[in-house]
Design brief:
This protein has about 55 residues and is mainly α. The chain has one helix and no strands.
Length: about 55
């Protein structure tokens, strides 16, 4: 009975660890997407500023 309990406990620990890894990976993926969108917006803003300055000249 004790060995079965220990086996189940190890499996629960392994499952919890894998779930934590999956959550971290999911967060990192969403964060990377957000950062890339921000960089793209910033780049577009900079291009628009440059284009406006050229048009003013």
């Amino acid at each position: 009975m004790q060995s079965e309990y220990d086996s189940i406990s190890r499996e629960e620990t392994r499952t919890a660890t894998e779930l934590a890894y999956a959550e971290v990976i999911s967060y990192n993926r969403k964060n990377l997407e957000r950062e890339l969108q921000n960089e793209s917006r910033q780049h577009n803003r900079q291009q628009n500023k440059t284009k406006r300055r050229e048009e003013e000249l």
